Amino acid sequence: MKKLVVVGQGYVGLPLALEAVSAGYDVIGYDVDVRRVKRLATADSYVEDISDGRLGEALASGHYRPTYDEADCSGYDVAVITVPTPLKDGTPDLSFVEAASRSLGARLERGACVILESTTYPGTTEELVRPILEESSGLLAGRDFHLGYSPERIDPGNSRYTLLNTPKVVSGIDAASLAAVSEFYGSIVERTVPVSGTREAEMVKLMENTFRHVNIALVNELAMFAADLGIDIWEALDAASTKPFGFMRFNPGPGVGGHCLPVDPSYLAWDVKRRVGTAFRFVELANDVNDHMPEYVVRRLTLALNQLGQSVNGRRILLIGLAYKPNTSDARESPALVVAERLLALGAKVRAVEPYVDADWLELPIALVELTAREVEAADAVVILTDHSNLDYDLITSHARYVLDTRHRISGRSVEHL
Ligand SMILES: NC(=O)c1ccc[n+]([C@@H]2O[C@H](COP(=O)([O-])OP(=O)(O)OC[C@H]3O[C@@H](n4cnc5c(N)ncnc54)[C@H](O)[C@@H]3O)[C@@H](O)[C@H]2O)c1
Fold first, then answer.
1. How many angstroms is it from 31 CA to the middle of ligand 1?
2. How far is ligand 1, taken at its centre, from the CA of residue 255, in Å?
3. Architecture of the domain delimited by 264-417
4. Most buried in the list 42, 61, 108, 274, measured by CB within 10 Å?
5. How far apart (Å, rounded) are the C-alpha atoms in residues 347 and 412?
Protein backbone atom coordinates (compact mmCIF):
# COMPACT_ATOMS: atom_id res chain seq x y z
CA MET A 1 0.00 0.00 0.00
CA LYS A 2 1.38 3.40 -0.98
CA LYS A 3 1.85 6.07 1.65
CA LEU A 4 0.43 9.52 0.93
CA VAL A 5 1.07 12.63 3.01
CA VAL A 6 -1.32 15.55 2.58
CA VAL A 7 0.21 18.67 4.10
CA GLY A 8 -2.59 20.97 5.27
CA GLN A 9 -5.97 19.53 6.30
CA GLY A 10 -8.28 22.35 5.25
CA TYR A 11 -10.99 22.77 2.62
CA VAL A 12 -8.69 21.32 -0.03
CA GLY A 13 -6.47 18.88 1.88
CA LEU A 14 -9.08 17.04 3.93
CA PRO A 15 -11.34 15.98 1.01
CA LEU A 16 -8.26 14.85 -0.94
CA ALA A 17 -6.99 12.83 2.02
CA LEU A 18 -10.30 11.02 2.43
CA GLU A 19 -10.74 10.30 -1.28
CA ALA A 20 -7.23 8.86 -1.30
CA VAL A 21 -8.17 6.54 1.57
CA SER A 22 -11.09 5.26 -0.54
CA ALA A 23 -8.70 4.81 -3.49
CA GLY A 24 -6.47 2.55 -1.39
CA TYR A 25 -3.73 4.81 -0.03
CA ASP A 26 -2.39 4.85 3.49
CA VAL A 27 -2.86 8.54 4.31
CA ILE A 28 -1.22 10.90 6.78
CA GLY A 29 -3.11 14.17 7.16
CA TYR A 30 -0.44 16.52 8.47
CA ASP A 31 -1.41 19.94 9.82
CA VAL A 32 0.37 22.38 12.13
CA ASP A 33 -2.93 23.43 13.71
CA VAL A 34 -3.09 21.22 16.81
CA ARG A 35 -6.73 22.12 17.50
CA ARG A 36 -7.76 21.04 14.00
CA VAL A 37 -5.83 17.78 14.24
CA LYS A 38 -7.46 16.97 17.58
CA ARG A 39 -10.89 17.58 16.09
CA LEU A 40 -10.08 15.34 13.13
CA ALA A 41 -8.86 12.59 15.43
CA THR A 42 -12.26 12.55 17.18
CA ALA A 43 -14.16 12.53 13.85
CA ASP A 44 -15.30 16.12 14.33
CA SER A 45 -15.16 17.65 10.85
CA TYR A 46 -14.84 21.41 10.32
CA VAL A 47 -15.20 21.14 6.53
CA GLU A 48 -18.90 21.04 5.68
CA ASP A 49 -18.50 18.84 2.60
CA ILE A 50 -17.02 16.15 4.84
CA SER A 51 -19.48 14.63 7.30
CA ASP A 52 -18.38 13.40 10.72
CA GLY A 53 -19.56 9.95 9.64
CA ARG A 54 -17.33 9.91 6.60
CA LEU A 55 -14.36 11.09 8.62
CA GLY A 56 -15.13 8.46 11.26
CA GLU A 57 -15.15 5.71 8.64
CA ALA A 58 -11.75 6.80 7.31
CA LEU A 59 -10.31 6.82 10.83
CA ALA A 60 -11.84 3.43 11.58
CA SER A 61 -10.31 1.96 8.42
CA GLY A 62 -6.89 2.54 9.97
CA HIS A 63 -5.70 4.16 6.73
CA TYR A 64 -6.21 7.80 7.67
CA ARG A 65 -4.16 9.36 10.44
CA PRO A 66 -4.36 13.08 11.21
CA THR A 67 -1.21 14.36 12.92
CA TYR A 68 0.70 17.47 13.92
CA ASP A 69 3.90 15.48 14.39
CA GLU A 70 6.14 16.07 11.39
CA ALA A 71 7.95 12.77 12.04
CA ASP A 72 4.79 10.89 10.93
CA CYS A 73 5.40 12.17 7.39
CA SER A 74 8.50 9.99 6.91
CA GLY A 75 8.69 7.40 4.16
CA TYR A 76 6.02 8.77 1.85
CA ASP A 77 5.54 7.70 -1.78
CA VAL A 78 3.47 10.75 -2.67
CA ALA A 79 3.06 14.07 -0.84
CA VAL A 80 0.63 16.85 -1.72
CA ILE A 81 0.92 20.41 -0.39
CA THR A 82 -2.44 22.11 0.27
CA VAL A 83 -1.48 24.96 2.59
CA PRO A 84 -2.75 28.56 2.44
CA THR A 85 -1.36 31.10 -0.01
CA PRO A 86 -2.65 34.44 1.26
CA LEU A 87 -1.61 38.00 0.53
CA LYS A 88 0.47 39.97 3.01
CA ASP A 89 0.37 43.74 2.49
CA GLY A 90 -0.87 43.08 -1.06
CA THR A 91 1.94 40.70 -2.05
CA PRO A 92 1.99 36.88 -2.15
CA ASP A 93 2.82 35.24 1.16
CA LEU A 94 4.49 31.94 0.31
CA SER A 95 5.75 31.28 3.85
CA PHE A 96 3.31 28.37 4.35
CA VAL A 97 4.40 26.71 1.10
CA GLU A 98 8.05 27.19 2.08
CA ALA A 99 7.50 25.65 5.51
CA ALA A 100 5.58 22.71 4.01
CA SER A 101 8.34 22.15 1.44
CA ARG A 102 10.96 22.11 4.21
CA SER A 103 8.95 19.55 6.19
CA LEU A 104 8.65 17.29 3.13
CA GLY A 105 12.23 17.88 1.95
CA ALA A 106 13.65 16.68 5.24
CA ARG A 107 11.82 13.36 4.74
CA LEU A 108 12.10 13.01 0.99
CA GLU A 109 13.26 9.62 -0.30
CA ARG A 110 14.35 8.49 -3.74
CA GLY A 111 11.46 7.71 -6.11
CA ALA A 112 8.89 9.76 -4.18
CA CYS A 113 6.60 12.32 -5.82
CA VAL A 114 5.83 15.77 -4.41
CA ILE A 115 2.90 17.78 -5.75
CA LEU A 116 1.96 21.37 -5.01
CA GLU A 117 -1.77 22.15 -5.08
CA SER A 118 -1.86 25.53 -3.34
CA THR A 119 -2.88 28.32 -5.70
CA THR A 120 0.11 30.44 -6.63
CA TYR A 121 1.86 32.44 -9.34
CA PRO A 122 3.46 30.66 -12.31
CA GLY A 123 6.98 29.53 -11.49
CA THR A 124 6.46 28.67 -7.81
CA THR A 125 6.92 24.90 -8.19
CA GLU A 126 10.18 25.22 -10.13
CA GLU A 127 11.63 28.32 -8.49
CA LEU A 128 10.53 28.04 -4.88
CA VAL A 129 9.49 24.48 -4.00
CA ARG A 130 12.14 22.67 -6.03
CA PRO A 131 15.23 24.33 -4.48
CA ILE A 132 13.86 23.90 -0.94
CA LEU A 133 13.19 20.20 -1.54
CA GLU A 134 16.59 19.67 -3.14
CA GLU A 135 18.46 21.56 -0.45
CA SER A 136 16.77 19.88 2.50
CA SER A 137 16.97 16.38 1.02
CA GLY A 138 20.28 16.44 -0.85
CA LEU A 139 18.40 14.85 -3.78
CA LEU A 140 17.84 16.18 -7.29
CA ALA A 141 14.36 16.79 -8.74
CA GLY A 142 13.86 14.85 -11.96
CA ARG A 143 16.75 12.49 -11.28
CA ASP A 144 15.91 11.31 -7.74
CA PHE A 145 12.31 12.34 -7.18
CA HIS A 146 9.27 13.58 -9.10
CA LEU A 147 7.79 17.03 -8.75
CA GLY A 148 4.63 18.56 -10.15
CA TYR A 149 1.76 20.96 -9.78
CA SER A 150 -1.97 20.32 -9.92
CA PRO A 151 -4.42 23.19 -9.36
CA GLU A 152 -7.31 22.57 -7.01
CA ARG A 153 -10.81 23.18 -8.33
CA ILE A 154 -12.75 22.28 -5.25
CA ASP A 155 -15.93 24.28 -4.81
CA PRO A 156 -17.07 24.02 -1.18
CA GLY A 157 -20.80 23.41 -0.91
CA ASN A 158 -21.10 22.18 -4.50
CA SER A 159 -22.53 18.67 -4.42
CA ARG A 160 -22.78 18.31 -8.22
CA TYR A 161 -19.11 18.87 -9.01
CA THR A 162 -16.78 17.26 -6.51
CA LEU A 163 -13.11 16.36 -6.45
CA LEU A 164 -13.98 13.07 -8.17
CA ASN A 165 -15.93 14.29 -11.20
CA THR A 166 -14.18 17.61 -11.85
CA PRO A 167 -11.37 17.15 -14.40
CA LYS A 168 -8.00 17.58 -12.68
CA VAL A 169 -5.24 19.45 -14.49
CA VAL A 170 -1.86 17.79 -13.88
CA SER A 171 1.73 18.74 -14.66
CA GLY A 172 5.31 17.81 -13.88
CA ILE A 173 8.76 19.34 -14.21
CA ASP A 174 9.60 16.61 -16.78
CA ALA A 175 7.94 13.68 -18.54
CA ALA A 176 8.59 11.22 -15.70
CA SER A 177 7.19 13.64 -13.12
CA LEU A 178 4.10 14.26 -15.26
CA ALA A 179 3.60 10.50 -15.52
CA ALA A 180 3.90 10.11 -11.73
CA VAL A 181 1.51 13.00 -11.01
CA SER A 182 -0.98 11.71 -13.61
CA GLU A 183 -0.83 8.22 -12.17
CA PHE A 184 -1.52 9.49 -8.67
CA TYR A 185 -4.57 11.60 -9.57
CA GLY A 186 -5.69 9.06 -12.16
CA SER A 187 -6.10 6.60 -9.29
CA ILE A 188 -8.43 9.02 -7.48
CA VAL A 189 -10.40 11.23 -9.90
CA GLU A 190 -12.39 10.38 -13.03
CA ARG A 191 -10.39 12.44 -15.50
CA THR A 192 -6.97 14.06 -15.58
CA VAL A 193 -5.94 16.80 -18.02
CA PRO A 194 -2.18 16.84 -18.58
CA VAL A 195 -0.43 20.07 -19.55
CA SER A 196 3.17 20.34 -20.67
CA GLY A 197 4.66 22.26 -17.74
CA THR A 198 4.08 23.35 -14.16
CA ARG A 199 3.86 27.02 -15.15
CA GLU A 200 0.93 26.30 -17.49
CA ALA A 201 -0.82 24.38 -14.71
CA GLU A 202 -0.19 27.20 -12.25
CA MET A 203 -1.59 29.64 -14.81
CA VAL A 204 -4.77 27.56 -15.26
CA LYS A 205 -5.97 28.20 -11.74
CA LEU A 206 -5.18 31.92 -11.84
CA MET A 207 -6.88 32.24 -15.22
CA GLU A 208 -10.03 30.53 -13.97
CA ASN A 209 -10.28 32.71 -10.90
CA THR A 210 -9.38 35.93 -12.69
CA PHE A 211 -12.11 35.14 -15.22
CA ARG A 212 -14.68 34.86 -12.43
CA HIS A 213 -13.37 37.89 -10.60
CA VAL A 214 -13.48 40.15 -13.67
CA ASN A 215 -16.94 38.98 -14.76
CA ILE A 216 -18.39 39.47 -11.30
CA ALA A 217 -16.93 42.98 -11.27
CA LEU A 218 -18.51 43.65 -14.66
CA VAL A 219 -21.97 42.64 -13.52
CA ASN A 220 -21.53 44.50 -10.20
CA GLU A 221 -20.72 47.70 -12.07
CA LEU A 222 -23.70 47.13 -14.37
CA ALA A 223 -25.92 46.61 -11.31
CA MET A 224 -24.88 49.96 -9.85
CA PHE A 225 -25.54 51.78 -13.14
CA ALA A 226 -28.83 49.95 -13.62
CA ALA A 227 -30.07 51.04 -10.18
CA ASP A 228 -29.30 54.68 -11.06
CA LEU A 229 -31.01 54.28 -14.45
CA GLY A 230 -34.08 52.64 -12.94
CA ILE A 231 -33.45 49.37 -14.79
CA ASP A 232 -34.10 45.96 -13.24
CA ILE A 233 -30.69 44.32 -13.69
CA TRP A 234 -31.99 40.93 -12.54
CA GLU A 235 -34.68 40.84 -15.18
CA ALA A 236 -32.13 41.85 -17.82
CA LEU A 237 -29.82 39.10 -16.58
CA ASP A 238 -32.58 36.47 -16.72
CA ALA A 239 -33.34 37.47 -20.30
CA ALA A 240 -29.67 37.64 -21.38
CA SER A 241 -29.14 34.17 -19.93
CA THR A 242 -31.57 32.69 -22.44
CA LYS A 243 -28.92 33.19 -25.13
CA PRO A 244 -27.63 29.68 -25.70
CA PHE A 245 -24.13 30.76 -26.81
CA GLY A 246 -21.65 33.57 -26.16
CA PHE A 247 -23.04 34.58 -22.77
CA MET A 248 -22.28 33.24 -19.31
CA ARG A 249 -24.28 34.41 -16.34
CA PHE A 250 -22.66 36.00 -13.30
CA ASN A 251 -24.73 37.59 -10.56
CA PRO A 252 -24.15 40.87 -8.79
CA GLY A 253 -23.66 40.76 -5.03
CA PRO A 254 -22.14 42.51 -2.03
CA GLY A 255 -18.57 41.85 -3.22
CA VAL A 256 -16.27 38.84 -3.47
CA GLY A 257 -14.84 36.78 -0.64
CA GLY A 258 -13.24 33.49 0.27
CA HIS A 259 -9.70 32.34 -0.10
CA CYS A 260 -9.60 32.53 -3.89
CA LEU A 261 -11.26 35.42 -5.72
CA PRO A 262 -10.04 38.37 -3.65
CA VAL A 263 -6.52 36.88 -3.54
CA ASP A 264 -5.56 34.82 -6.59
CA PRO A 265 -5.86 37.48 -9.32
CA SER A 266 -3.47 39.63 -7.28
CA TYR A 267 -0.92 36.78 -7.33
CA LEU A 268 -1.02 36.95 -11.10
CA ALA A 269 -0.96 40.77 -11.20
CA TRP A 270 2.05 40.77 -8.84
CA ASP A 271 3.88 38.27 -11.05
CA VAL A 272 3.12 40.17 -14.27
CA LYS A 273 4.34 43.44 -12.71
CA ARG A 274 7.49 41.76 -11.39
CA ARG A 275 8.47 39.95 -14.57
CA VAL A 276 7.03 42.04 -17.40
CA GLY A 277 6.83 45.41 -15.67
CA THR A 278 3.23 45.93 -16.78
CA ALA A 279 0.11 46.50 -14.73
CA PHE A 280 -2.58 43.83 -15.13
CA ARG A 281 -5.31 46.42 -15.64
CA PHE A 282 -8.29 44.08 -15.68
CA VAL A 283 -7.39 42.80 -12.22
CA GLU A 284 -6.82 46.28 -10.85
CA LEU A 285 -10.18 47.43 -12.18
CA ALA A 286 -12.00 44.34 -10.95
CA ASN A 287 -10.43 44.72 -7.49
CA ASP A 288 -11.53 48.32 -7.44
CA VAL A 289 -15.16 47.54 -8.35
CA ASN A 290 -15.52 44.45 -6.16
CA ASP A 291 -13.81 46.04 -3.14
CA HIS A 292 -16.24 48.94 -3.43
CA MET A 293 -19.37 46.76 -3.27
CA PRO A 294 -19.76 46.49 0.54
CA GLU A 295 -19.58 50.28 0.70
CA TYR A 296 -22.24 50.46 -2.00
CA VAL A 297 -24.52 48.12 -0.03
CA VAL A 298 -24.18 50.35 3.03
CA ARG A 299 -24.93 53.42 0.90
CA ARG A 300 -28.08 51.79 -0.52
CA LEU A 301 -29.22 50.91 3.00
CA THR A 302 -28.45 54.42 4.24
CA LEU A 303 -30.51 55.92 1.40
CA ALA A 304 -33.41 53.56 2.06
CA LEU A 305 -33.46 54.37 5.78
CA ASN A 306 -33.19 58.04 4.94
CA GLN A 307 -36.34 57.78 2.85
CA LEU A 308 -38.08 56.32 5.89
CA GLY A 309 -36.87 59.31 7.91
CA GLN A 310 -34.26 57.26 9.78
CA SER A 311 -30.50 57.24 10.10
CA VAL A 312 -28.28 54.17 10.38
CA ASN A 313 -27.11 55.37 13.78
CA GLY A 314 -29.00 53.52 16.51
CA ARG A 315 -31.00 51.33 14.08
CA ARG A 316 -31.27 47.60 14.59
CA ILE A 317 -30.04 45.90 11.44
CA LEU A 318 -30.40 42.17 10.88
CA LEU A 319 -27.89 40.69 8.46
CA ILE A 320 -28.71 37.39 6.79
CA GLY A 321 -25.56 35.34 6.07
CA LEU A 322 -21.97 36.26 6.84
CA ALA A 323 -20.14 33.49 4.96
CA TYR A 324 -18.71 34.55 1.61
CA LYS A 325 -21.08 32.29 -0.30
CA PRO A 326 -24.14 30.13 0.37
CA ASN A 327 -23.98 26.88 2.32
CA THR A 328 -20.43 27.21 3.54
CA SER A 329 -18.92 28.19 6.90
CA ASP A 330 -16.05 29.96 5.18
CA ALA A 331 -16.16 33.68 6.03
CA ARG A 332 -12.58 34.51 5.08
CA GLU A 333 -12.44 37.84 3.27
CA SER A 334 -16.25 37.83 3.28
CA PRO A 335 -17.73 41.12 2.05
CA ALA A 336 -20.57 40.61 4.57
CA LEU A 337 -18.07 41.25 7.36
CA VAL A 338 -17.05 44.53 5.74
CA VAL A 339 -20.73 45.54 5.54
CA ALA A 340 -21.14 44.64 9.24
CA GLU A 341 -18.03 46.58 10.20
CA ARG A 342 -19.15 49.71 8.34
CA LEU A 343 -22.64 49.56 9.88
CA LEU A 344 -21.16 49.17 13.37
CA ALA A 345 -18.91 52.17 12.71
CA LEU A 346 -22.00 54.18 11.78
CA GLY A 347 -23.59 53.30 15.12
CA ALA A 348 -26.01 50.55 14.02
CA LYS A 349 -26.91 47.68 16.32
CA VAL A 350 -25.93 44.76 14.14
CA ARG A 351 -27.30 41.27 14.58
CA ALA A 352 -26.86 38.37 12.19
CA VAL A 353 -28.43 35.08 11.23
CA GLU A 354 -25.59 32.78 10.24
CA PRO A 355 -26.11 29.05 10.66
CA TYR A 356 -22.64 27.96 9.58
CA VAL A 357 -19.92 30.36 10.71
CA ASP A 358 -18.45 29.60 14.12
CA ALA A 359 -19.28 32.43 16.61
CA ASP A 360 -15.77 32.13 18.14
CA TRP A 361 -14.29 32.96 14.78
CA LEU A 362 -16.06 36.33 14.47
CA GLU A 363 -14.09 39.26 15.77
CA LEU A 364 -16.88 41.82 15.46
CA PRO A 365 -19.42 42.65 18.20
CA ILE A 366 -22.34 41.11 16.31
CA ALA A 367 -25.01 39.07 18.08
CA LEU A 368 -25.62 35.79 16.25
CA VAL A 369 -29.35 35.06 16.46
CA GLU A 370 -31.93 32.56 15.27
CA LEU A 371 -34.17 33.47 12.36
CA THR A 372 -37.54 34.02 14.06
CA ALA A 373 -40.55 36.20 13.27
CA ARG A 374 -39.80 38.25 16.40
CA GLU A 375 -36.21 38.84 15.40
CA VAL A 376 -37.25 39.97 11.92
CA GLU A 377 -40.03 42.23 13.21
CA ALA A 378 -37.69 43.85 15.73
CA ALA A 379 -35.23 44.84 12.98
CA ASP A 380 -35.45 48.27 11.39
CA ALA A 381 -33.94 46.71 8.29
CA VAL A 382 -32.92 43.27 7.09
CA VAL A 383 -30.02 42.88 4.66
CA ILE A 384 -29.65 39.57 2.81
CA LEU A 385 -25.94 39.18 2.15
CA THR A 386 -25.54 35.41 1.74
CA ASP A 387 -28.56 33.29 0.82
CA HIS A 388 -27.91 30.01 2.60
CA SER A 389 -30.51 27.55 1.36
CA ASN A 390 -31.60 26.28 4.79
CA LEU A 391 -33.22 29.56 5.87
CA ASP A 392 -36.94 30.38 5.87
CA TYR A 393 -37.11 33.29 3.42
CA ASP A 394 -40.93 33.46 3.50
CA LEU A 395 -40.64 34.39 7.13
CA ILE A 396 -38.44 37.35 6.18
CA THR A 397 -40.80 38.43 3.37
CA SER A 398 -43.83 38.34 5.61
CA HIS A 399 -42.40 39.94 8.76
CA ALA A 400 -39.74 42.44 7.70
CA ARG A 401 -40.36 46.17 7.62
CA TYR A 402 -37.68 46.72 5.00
CA VAL A 403 -35.32 44.30 3.21
CA LEU A 404 -32.30 45.06 1.06
CA ASP A 405 -31.74 41.79 -0.80
CA THR A 406 -28.31 41.74 -2.43
CA ARG A 407 -28.84 38.19 -3.79
CA HIS A 408 -32.28 38.54 -5.32
CA ARG A 409 -33.56 35.73 -3.16
CA ILE A 410 -36.96 37.18 -2.26
CA SER A 411 -39.49 39.63 -3.63
CA GLY A 412 -42.25 41.65 -2.04
CA ARG A 413 -43.54 45.11 -1.23
CA SER A 414 -40.91 45.84 1.42
CA VAL A 415 -38.04 44.27 -0.57
CA GLU A 416 -35.45 46.18 -2.58
CA HIS A 417 -32.83 44.47 -4.73
CA LEU A 418 -29.24 45.44 -5.35
N1 LIG B 1 -11.02 26.67 -0.26
C2 LIG B 1 -11.17 26.58 -1.56
O3 LIG B 1 -12.29 26.57 -2.05
C4 LIG B 1 -9.98 26.47 -2.50
C5 LIG B 1 -10.24 26.11 -3.83
C6 LIG B 1 -9.18 25.99 -4.71
C7 LIG B 1 -7.89 26.24 -4.26
N8 LIG B 1 -7.65 26.60 -2.96
C9 LIG B 1 -6.26 26.83 -2.61
O10 LIG B 1 -5.79 25.72 -1.85
C11 LIG B 1 -4.90 26.15 -0.83
C12 LIG B 1 -5.42 25.72 0.54
O13 LIG B 1 -6.67 26.34 0.77
P14 LIG B 1 -7.68 25.84 1.87
O15 LIG B 1 -8.95 26.54 1.62
O16 LIG B 1 -7.68 24.36 1.98
O17 LIG B 1 -6.98 26.46 3.19
P18 LIG B 1 -7.33 26.11 4.73
O19 LIG B 1 -6.89 27.31 5.50
O20 LIG B 1 -8.72 25.61 4.84
O21 LIG B 1 -6.36 24.90 5.06
C22 LIG B 1 -4.98 24.98 5.04
C23 LIG B 1 -4.43 24.21 6.22
O24 LIG B 1 -3.01 24.20 6.11
C25 LIG B 1 -2.49 24.21 7.44
N26 LIG B 1 -1.07 24.59 7.38
C27 LIG B 1 -0.54 25.83 7.23
N28 LIG B 1 0.81 25.74 7.17
C29 LIG B 1 1.13 24.44 7.29
C30 LIG B 1 2.36 23.72 7.30
N31 LIG B 1 3.52 24.34 7.16
N32 LIG B 1 2.32 22.38 7.47
C33 LIG B 1 1.14 21.74 7.62
N34 LIG B 1 -0.05 22.36 7.60
C35 LIG B 1 -0.06 23.70 7.44
C36 LIG B 1 -3.40 25.17 8.17
O37 LIG B 1 -3.31 24.97 9.57
C38 LIG B 1 -4.76 24.80 7.59
O39 LIG B 1 -5.43 23.83 8.38
C40 LIG B 1 -4.77 27.65 -1.01
O41 LIG B 1 -3.68 27.93 -1.83
C42 LIG B 1 -6.05 28.03 -1.71
O43 LIG B 1 -5.91 29.20 -2.48
C44 LIG B 1 -8.67 26.71 -2.08
1. 10
2. 22
3. 3-Layer(aba) Sandwich (3.40)
4. 108
5. 28
Amino acid letter, 355: P
Q: In 10 A of CB 12, how many CB atoms? A: 25
pLDDT tens by residue, 325-379:
998 888 988 999 999 999 999 999 999 999 998 888 888 889 999 999 999 999 9
Do 3-196 and 264-417 agree at the fold level? yes
CB 394 within 8 A of CB 344: no
For ligand 1, whether the C-beta of 204 sits within 6 Å is no
Domain covering 3-196: architecture: 3-Layer(aba) Sandwich (3.40)
260 is catalytic: yes
- For the chain, give the secondary structure using H, E and C: CCEEEEECCCCCHHHHHHHHHHCCCEEEEECCCHHHHHHHHCCCCCCCCCCHHHHHHHHHCCCEEEECCHHHHCCCCEEEECCCCCEECCEECCHHHHHHHHHHHCCCCCCCEEEECCCCCCCHHHHHHHHHHHHHHCCCECCCEEEEECCCCCCCCCCCCCCCCCCEEEEECCHHHHHHHHHHHHCCCCCEEECCCHHHHHHHHHHHHHHHHHHHHHHHHHHHHHHHHCCCHHHHHHHHCCCCCCCCCCCCCCCCCCCCCCCHHHHHHHHHHHHHCCCCHHHHHHHHHHHHHHHHHHHHHHHHHHHCCCCCCCCEEEEECCCCCCCCCCCCCCHHHHHHHHHHHCCCEEEEECCCCCHHHCCCCCEECCCCHHHHHHCCEEEECCCCCCCCHHHHHHHCCCEEECCCCCCCCCEEEC
Domains of the chain: which residue ranges? 3-196, 264-417
373 CA → ligand 1 middle, Å: 39
Helices (H), 69-197: 95-105, 124, 130-137, 175-186
Q: Is 403 helix (H, G, I), strand (E, B) or coil?
A: strand
In angstroms, what is the span from residue 312 Cα to ligand 1's centroid?
A: 38
> Which residue among 5, 7, 12, 16 is best mutated to probe the pocket of ligand 1, counting the most ligand atoms within 8 A of its Cβ?
12
Q: What is the pLDDT of residues 146-195, one digit of tens each?
A: 999 999 998 887 889 999 999 999 999 999 999 999 999 999 999 999 99
Q: Which of 5, 39, 259 to mutate to test the pocket of ligand 1 (most atoms within 8 A of CB)?
A: 259
Ligand 1 and 324: CB distance under 6 A: no
